[in-house]
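Q: How would the structure tokens look for this protein?
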Amino acid sequence: MNEPSARDVPGTGSRRALFGVLAGTAVLALPASAAASASARDDVRRVADRAMDRFDHGWRTGEWEPFLGMLTSRFSFWFPEGEWRGRHEGAAGRRAIAAWARFHGDHGNRVTGERRDVTVMGDRVLYEYDSRGASAATSGYLNWETIIVRVRGERICALHEYWGNVPPATG
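A: Here is the predicted structure in token form.
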């Protein structure tokens, strides 16, 4: 068969030249794409860390308002135990996490947690903690938790908490 190839068509050049131009364009585009991806990842991590710093502050001090100020009005709150056990979504999720935080603040429940690892996964950030009670009300609390937050703009729209010990160990 004698079908024309790209090199046989006037004004198109060879396939090799065309491939060289396309490959060069792709190589030049990669750093910009990688930089944009790294920037988006850094933005997600920055917002999530700010929220979790406020979350940790709430546990240490009982002052939860700075953390609650980082939440969207429609919120996804998942919790493994107690009155707030289950999946709470939307406006009900926002009310549930606010009630949860106020309960702990009002009852003097204090916990200190050491962040063991942080992993960014798109718009979600996974935090791994080793935690223990830090007040008379929580003196027996000993647990390890995984908390996943989801970032939307400059706020978080979800907090899903999972425990290594259900119920938490005493120690």
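The chain has one domain: 29-163.

Strands lie at 71-79, 86-88, 111-121, 124-133, 142-152, 155-163.

Upvote if useful.
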